[in-house]
């Protein structure tokens, strides 16, 4: 670990936080285009955040300190998760401290806190949201971990940097297990970021909401932090997807000259992924809540199948 | 402390001290203040001494001692080796917190009951220590039975309630069924020499058949005590019945003595292991883990929920033992050492967080008199200290970084990921499925724990009387703080403890993880190699704390609004009542629906036209119907058959004796 990599890590830490809402704005904009609307522009999430940061916060009378601290915990967890995904260069000092299993653990930590905060006020919607969130997660989390496992069985490491480095070397030889894992990961991504078909981020339709139900009681700065954290989470998931399944072009260890190209490629990949996400959301319909476990169970089985093919074929 | 004392002598001193304290409790019957303020805190001091000594003894050579007690020519053999020392560490470290807590918890127990309870409690502690020290089957069984009986009396402290009596009976019954299997296991292992010391058992070379028989008997016998499927039924009955500190002790420590027994038999007393033992233990463990956590998620009684969660954790530990056996049988000793370290670390962690959770549940019970989740709620406002300390336990048991539960699950998953090292293709394929089950169980544990914490401590109080709930006293807080501190320390600084556990794996399978700390500094946990996998809880924790502070300060600086309080919004719905929150049943409903196959569900749903609707739902353990009731019926039928022979008339009994004698004579001739 030298000063260059450390500096780079710091820069990435800052950039992911600042750039994450842009991806969300892009996805929303693409969706608007596909629905024949003109959309609010890709900078809309920033405006929404600024607006929220200027408002007076209202806390429910019986909100406990847990309710007030949770947005910060959520924000920091997502920040940490996004900072350790190799997006333009693989050499990240933080990636050694937090491997893929710990990464899943950090997502789980954030989730447990937001679910607890949702139960804190004691409204019917809050507990409903918490219950559904935990329902979605107890299948999504193992599926995500299984995706990571099939990758780490190939790379012989659970460090995300090493995994990406291995994959980037393998040129375009597609691993059969990673094909299964890729589909599973996509399903988990949709579920964990409360996207259609599991949840819908742009609705307050009471019977179908999951994530929105949990954060109903939040306002102003707390809500801003949570919305921002959601944007970072989406960014983290999309970059994890890119790192695992489309790592080509990333700047490898010590190769700082490749950075500009890697950055350009990343922007293209992100734009493509955001468009794809919006497309998927536009063509699918929301599932009934009790179909969600089937959806995620499929993801889990696909990921496990991926591991089985991996051990069968020994590639 | 004098330097010429052997560690084993100090441990014996602590055991003796506990026994004296127990007798003191009996003598002081009626002096509630003396017992709570003197006997229990002194017990905690003894426990801390025990923990320190056993931590030091981990790295020393095995000490032995012979006590001239017991039957003539059958003295008690004692031995303190790294494995015993490790489990004594669990006993000392966990019971220190629990004894401190007891000093406050039992303050309103009537004197005579309390005196007896203090006696049983300390005898229980001493007998657990003796189980761990025993070096012959005779002392082991005596200590094991003392442990079972003293804990039986502790469970039935409130013996005037019929449910508690029957819970105690089930506990005692299964404990004895298990004890018979353990006795038979020792009988197999002495190999016909009649020498029941562990030393001679180690020297015996059993044939694979008899070795397997011994292992299966041990798995059954110790599994009954640990709560392995299908012998787990006593746990959810006994834990709600016992006073909370006793539940904490039973769940945190006593279950671990069974794990100790399994390890002692499979790795120390039996010279070679078969690979299929590993598969068996792994499968049983994983099934137990999943089964336990599913039932934990649908419980509505605080302590039953925790009891089922203990079953889950025991399942994880036994799965770890299975994995160790499997790797060891194929001479993959580095991986075996990794799996064993994960197993032992999880056993240590579980003692801390489950003890903490039971103590938290005890405080809630003490403050509200309510064990039903559906009548609690909002207690974080009334008992903030208990709530925040319990939250640490909840996060730890859910396997969340940077606390301790995550470390052991991380290690175990790493061991699973090294499955390709095994030479058998089928196993290579099956082990990742095991990892999938483990991960599913861990994720469900988070579900159950969010339910546990959220429904008890968060939301609005569901009953009027909760307004009078009070926070725990200073002793209770100290006890819980000790255990919560343990969760944090074990979570943030695992490298030191894992290096120490290396002595145990060295003794059991002749291999350890090498110098984990030296590989890349004590901040990094890299059990195999740095580029294979590394995890640094401290850096993670520092990032979260510093990032949190930076975010907080930044928001402070740029935020322009103020904070005011108002009624909850809830999508504009005005008529909120506490009854509209999820009940325990409501929160568990998705699990019940998805995994309906596992549960025996009885449900009465009222018709829509019912003017006095009554909803009733019950979730049963199907294994009662599948296994226990048939066995009970069979026993009753058999005894009815035997009963037919009994007429109560002396001539008939004399005839029986005469026929028996004739038969015997014919047989002997």
Structure description:
The complex is a heterodimer of chains A (315) and B (669). Chain A has 315 residues and is mainly alpha-helical. Chain A has 12 helices and 1 strand. The longest helix of chain A has 32 residues, at 3-34. The two termini of chain A are 31 Å apart. With 669 residues, chain B is mainly alpha-helical. Chain B has 3 domains: 1-213 and 228-256, no CATH class; 273-514, no CATH class; 595-668, no CATH class. Chain B has 24 helices and 5 strands. Chain B has a two-stranded antiparallel ribbon with strand order 1-2. In chain B, strands 4-5 form a two-stranded antiparallel sheet. In chain B, a hairpin with a 2-residue loop joins strand 1 (63-71) and strand 2 (74-80). At the A-B interface, strand 1, helix 3, helix 4, helix 5 and helix 6 of A face helix 16, helix 17, helix 21, strand 3 and helix 22 of B.
Secondary structure topology:
The complex is a heterodimer of chains A (315) and B (669).
Chain A: H1 3-34, H2 44-53, E1 57-60, H3 65-83, H4 93-97, H5 100-120, H6 124-155, H7 160-169, H8 176-192, H9 211-214, H10 220-245, H11 259-283, H12 292-313
Chain B: H1 7-27, H2 32-57, E1 63-71, E2 74-80, H3 82-105, H4 111-133, H5 137-155, H6 162-189, H7 198-203, H8 208-226, H9 234-241, H10 244-269, H11 275-298, H12 302-329, H13 333-368, H14 379-382, H15 384-397, H16 404-417, H17 425-457, H18 474-492, H19 494-509, H20 516-520, H21 537-558, E3 563-566, H22 584-594, E4 599-604, E5 616-621, H23 622-644, H24 650-668
Antiparallel strand pairs in B: 1-2, 4-5
Helix pairs in contact in B: 1-2, 1-4, 2-3, 2-4, 3-4, 3-10, 3-13, 3-18, 4-5, 4-10, 5-6, 5-10, 6-8, 6-9, 8-10, 9-12, 10-12, 10-13, 11-12, 11-17, 12-13, 12-17, 13-15, 13-16, 13-18, 13-19, 15-17, 15-18, 16-17, 16-18
């Amino acid at each position: 670990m030298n000063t260059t990599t450390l500096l780079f890590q710091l820069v990435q830490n800052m950039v992911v936080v600042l750039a994450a809402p842009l991806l969300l704005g892009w996805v929303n904009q693409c969706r608007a285009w596909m629905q024949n609307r003109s959309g609010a522009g890709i900078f809309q999430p920033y405006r929404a955040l600024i607006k929220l940061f200027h408002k007076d916060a209202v806390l429910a009378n019986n909100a406990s300190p847990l309710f007030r601290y949770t947005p910060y915990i959520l924000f920091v967890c997502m920040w940490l998760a996004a900072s350790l995904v190799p997006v333009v260069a693989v050499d990240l000092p933080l990636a050694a401290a937090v491997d893929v299993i710990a990464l899943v653990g950090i997502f789980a930590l954030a989730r447990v806190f937001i679910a607890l905060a949702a139960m804190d006020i004691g409204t019917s919607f809050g507990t409903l949201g918490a219950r559904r969130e935990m329902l979605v997660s107890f299948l999504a989390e193992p599926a995500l971990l299984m995706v990571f496992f099939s990758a780490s069985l190939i790379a012989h490491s659970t460090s995300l940097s090493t995994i990406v480095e291995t994959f980037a070397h393998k040129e375009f030889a597609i691993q059969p297990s990673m094909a299964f894992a890729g589909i599973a990961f996509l399903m988990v991504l949709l579920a964990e970021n409360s996207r259609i078909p599991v949840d819908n981020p742009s609705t307050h339709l009471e019977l179908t909401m999951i994530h929105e139900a949990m954060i109903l009681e939040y306002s102003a700065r707390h809500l801003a932090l949570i919305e921002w954290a959601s944007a970072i989470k989406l960014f983290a998931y999309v970059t994890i997807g890119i790192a695992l399944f489309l790592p080509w072009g990333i700047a490898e260890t010590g190769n700082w000259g490749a950075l500009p190209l890697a950055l350009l490629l990343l922007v293209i990949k992100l734009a493509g992924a955001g468009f794809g996400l919006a497309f998927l959301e536009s063509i699918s319909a929301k599932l009934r809540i009790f179909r969600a476990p089937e959806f995620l169970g499929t993801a889990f089985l696909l990921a496990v199948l991926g591991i089985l093919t991996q051990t069968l074929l020994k590639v | 402390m004098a330097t010429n004392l052997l560690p084993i002598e100090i441990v014996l001193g602590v055991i003796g001290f506990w026994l004296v304290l127990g007798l003191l409790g009996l003598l002081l019957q009626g002096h509630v203040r003396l017992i709570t303020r003197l006997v229990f805190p002194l017990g905690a001091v003894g426990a801390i001494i025990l923990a320190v000594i056993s931590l030091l003894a981990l790295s020393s050579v095995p000490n032995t001692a012979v006590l001239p007690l017991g039957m003539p020519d059958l003295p008690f053999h004692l031995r303190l080796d790294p494995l015993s020392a490790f489990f004594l560490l669990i006993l000392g470290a966990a019971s220190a917190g629990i004894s401190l807590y007891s000093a406050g918890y039992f303050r309103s127990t009537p004197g005579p009951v309390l005196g007896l309870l203090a006696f049983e409690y300390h005898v229980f502690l001493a007998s657990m220590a003796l189980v761990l020290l025993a070096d012959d089957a005779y002392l082991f069984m005596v200590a094991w039975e003392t442990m079972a009986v003293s804990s039986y009396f502790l469970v039935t402290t409130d013996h005037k309630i019929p449910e508690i009596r029957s819970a105690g009976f089930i506990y005692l019954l299964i404990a004895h069924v298990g004890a018979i299997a353990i006795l038979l296991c020792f009988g197999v292992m002495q190999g016909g020499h009649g020498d029941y010391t562990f030393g001679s058992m180690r020297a015996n070379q059993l044939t694979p058949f008899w070795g397997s028989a011994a292992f299966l008997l041990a798995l059954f016998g110790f599994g009954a005590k640990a709560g392995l499927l299908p012998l787990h039924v006593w746990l959810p009955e006994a834990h709600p019945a016992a006073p909370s500190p006793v539940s904490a002790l039973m769940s945190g420590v006593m279950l671990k003595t069974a794990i100790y027994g399994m390890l002692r038999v499979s790795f120390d007393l039996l010279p070679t292991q078969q690979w299929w033992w590993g598969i068996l233990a792994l499968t049983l463990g994983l099934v137990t883990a999943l089964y336990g956590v599913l039932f934990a998620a649908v419980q509505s009684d605080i302590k039953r929920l925790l009891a089922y969660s203990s079953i889950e954790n025991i399942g994880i530990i036994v799965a770890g033992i299975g994995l160790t056996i499997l790797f060891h049988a194929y001479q993959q000793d580095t991986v075996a050492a990794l799996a064993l370290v994960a197993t032992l670390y999880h056993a240590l962690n579980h003692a801390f967080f489950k003890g903490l959770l039971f103590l938290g549940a005890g405080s809630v019970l003490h403050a509200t008199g309510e064990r039903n989740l559906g009548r609690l709620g909002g207690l974080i406002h009334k008992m903030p200290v208990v709530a925040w300390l319990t939250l640490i336990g909840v996060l730890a048991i859910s396997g969340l970084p940077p606390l301790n539960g995550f470390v052991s699950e991380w290690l175990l998953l790493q061991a699973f990921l090294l499955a390709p090292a095994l030479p058998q293709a089928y196993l290579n394929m099956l082990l990742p499925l095991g990892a999938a089950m483990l991960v599913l169980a861990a994720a469900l544990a988070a579900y159950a724990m969010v339910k546990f914490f959220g429904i008890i401590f968060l939301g609005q109080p569901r009953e009027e009387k909760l307004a009078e709930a009070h926070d725990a006293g200073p002793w209770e807080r100290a006890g819980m703080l000790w255990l919560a501190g343990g969760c944090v320390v074990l979570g943030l600084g695992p490298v030191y403890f894992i290096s120490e556990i290396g002595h145990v794996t060295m003794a059991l399978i002749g291999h350890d993880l090498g110098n984990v700390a030296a590989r890349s500094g004590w901040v990094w946990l890299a059990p195999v190699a740095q580029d294979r996998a590394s995890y640094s809880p401290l850096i993670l924790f520092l990032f979260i704390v510093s990032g949190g502070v930076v975010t907080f300060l930044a928001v402070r600086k740029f935020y322009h609004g103020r904070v005011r309080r108002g009624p909850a919004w809830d999508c504009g719905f005005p008529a909120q009542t506490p009854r509209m929150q999820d009940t325990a049943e409501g929160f568990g409903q998705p699990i019940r629906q998805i995994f309906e196959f596992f549960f025996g569900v009885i449900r009465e749903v009222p018709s829509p036209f019912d003017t006095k609707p009554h909803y009733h739902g019950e979730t049963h353990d199907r294994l009662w119907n599948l296994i226990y009731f048939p066995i009970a019926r069979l026993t009753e039928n058999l005894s009815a058959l035997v009963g037919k022979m009994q007429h109560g008339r002396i001539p008939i009994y004399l005839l029986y004796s005469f026929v028996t004698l004739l038969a015997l004579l014919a047989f002997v001739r």
